[in-house]
Amino acid sequence: MAEKDKFASIADSGKPNAGRIYDYLLGGNHNFEVDRMAADQVVRLMPFFPKLCKLVRWFLGEAVRRLCEQGYTQFIDFASGLPTVDHIHQVAPPGTKVIYSDIDPVTVAYGQEIIKDNPSVRYGVCPAQKPEELLNSPLVQQFFDANRKVAIGFNGVAYFLPDEKLQHSMKILHDWAGKDSRLFLCDLGFEKTEINTSTGKEMDALYQRIGQPIYPRDRKTLETLTRPWKLREPGLQPLEEWVGVKEAVAEQSRSEGFAMIGAIFGK
Amino acid sequence: MRPAAKKELIAAFDALLGETAFDNRYSLHPRQLAQIGSEVAEAFWHFGDAPVEGDAESRGEHLAQEGLGERTILLLTSRLRGFCRQDPRDLDAAEGFTTSLLEGFLRAREAQILTDQEQLRRALSAALASQSQELLIKNLAVNTSINGILLTDLDGKVTWVNASCLRMWGCASAEEVLGEAFGGFWIDSEAGGILAKLQQTGGWHGQLQARRKDGGVFSAELSASLIRNEEQSPVGIMASVVDITEHLKAEEMEKNLLLAKEIHHRIKNNLQVISSLLFLQSEYVQDEKTREMFKESQNRVRSMALLHQKLYQSRNMAGIDSAEYIRDLTRNLFMSYGVADAQIQLAVTAEEIALDMDTAVPCGLIINELVSNSLKHAYPSGGPGRIRVSVSRAEAPAEADPPSAGGSWYRLIVADDGIGLPESLDFRKTESLGLKIVCTLTDQLGGRIELDRRGGARFTILFPET
């Protein structure tokens, strides 16, 4: 995105913003009518999409709770969206250091305003496919201890990245992270290789229209692409299982083989 | 109510909440739902047994803060009323409880929405303030740019200009140019076609002659491009103008300088050829005196060739470094006459004086003649001796004529400690070609020459800057 375009979108509150659309789909209040209208279009095509979004946040909360219990006190999150209710800094104990990041400068500008009174939280612009931009920035180097034992969030974004870019991100993060670091990642996946389902085609077409192709993957492929990170128990599971949603309800978030799957990985 | 009924109610709430997990805000984690069911049932039980004012409302507020969705709480209250409908007293309690619960819930939701919207508004304001600062800096950058910046509409009518642009065209204010046609700023007919080219290619770059308000002309480098909006539709034209008049002049001077250097190089080469021809010719001459004349001529030509060499080797060709020239010239003469430093010492002292060509040529020839004279005649036994050449700035002589009186004067001294000139010799009237040349060139320089015969021969020549 050119610099002028970034600012045009900040100035123009009459245009939908990805972070605010996501907030609306999650049931948040940090959105405008224009965002809600755009979100409704997405929901018409993919009625299960808001449920997927909630599953991602619930998984994120679940993973953060578990990792905090294990003593992790430094978190880096990619494709964070708006750091509103139930994001990492609100789930983790006070004093836990959290760095959020997002590719969208508008979202980051909002996010910085929201977290400005919290000295343990930072927010920077970084595309998930180039984590080195954040990791090598003064923001990370000055905020974290020399100890790089961190927990890294990479949720709901991998399916926007082609294989080589996802592999690049995983390797960069793995190389940078200290011993015993963790990666908690969830992604849009297929139970089988059912990319040819009608929903799959519709979804693909929708994203193609907005110039953002998607790359849903089955578990095995996702596991391969996230290497050298190592899967930890219980492995890649549907998010409904992670967060304890009843099977009958979980069905609402699936369509023709689509499911959100997630795991905690270790270094 | 029966104690067992509480368990039934909790089970009913759990079942309901489990089915509505996705209807709640994402902040409410599914694992918290079971706890919410039992908390609401517990609160209702307290309300039925010993109602405390505000309890149910507080519970409703808490549920909203936890993230319970509107649909979920309505289903929850509906389920409670349904559960209590068998007993009118229970039903009354349920009505009272749910009314208060919903009031508290809605109040908290409203407050939550207002808080979040206020936070969003603040975030938007912060983002806008940041953008405004960016825009202010960009605006200042364009306004204060040393390049002329000019904006027009798509028809080429000027809509905005910066201060540099006004300066270039000699205008006092923007009003003088706003609304004027872009093409009117230029002399070249090519300017008329720029708008059409911009529409085709989106950009144009080139040099044009511009007409100032007072009719003056300056050379300008123009870069023009279409301004496009987010939809890539053209909305105007931006032109950046640089006054390159001085640059072109400097370029022209640079070209002339290169040309002049080339000319001096060729003259030097030609003089060297002449010098070589004189040498070759002298090889065929048997008579020693005649051979000597050839050698003298050869040295004169070489002194001039050296001058041209120094000139084209100089940085700006404004003049030559006199000290360096004199050293090289005299060294060449020593070599030409086969004189070693051990026999006759050479001392050259020269201030940093840049002599122009009109002065340097006669000056060089004078030094050539006088040093040659010293080498040939001052030391019949071959030395030892000392020849001194110096050039320095000097006071203008009192009797100097205008116009040179006000300019710089120089003093050239060529001296030796040899046997000196015969007392009877009047150097101004001698038949010696060398001394004739010296006197003639001194006159040519507008200078004056003096000879001091004490301890050898010391010629002092005062001459003005040409």
Task: Please characterize this protein's 3D structure.
The complex is a heterodimer of chains A (267) and B (466). The relative contact order of chain A is 0.14. Chain A has a single domain, classed as Rossmann fold, CATH 3.40.50. With 267 residues, chain A is α/β, with parallel strands linked by helices. The N terminus of chain A is likely disordered. Chain B has 12 helices and 12 strands. In chain B, the strands form 3 sheets. A 5-stranded antiparallel sheet of chain B has the order 2-1-5-4-3, sandwiched between helices. A 5-stranded mixed sheet of chain B has the order 7-9-10-12-11, covered by helices on one side. In chain B, strands 6-8 form a two-stranded antiparallel ribbon. The chains are: A alpha/beta (267), B alpha+beta (466). Chains A and B meet through helix 1, helix 4 and helix 6 of A and helix 5 of B.
Summarize this entry quickly.
Chain A has helices at residues 3-11, 18-25, 33-45, 49-69, 88-91, 105-114, 132-135, 138-143, 163-176, 198-209, 219-225, 239-243, 247-250, and strands at 74-78, 97-102, 121-125, 151-155, 182-190, 217-218, 230-231, 237-238, 258-266.
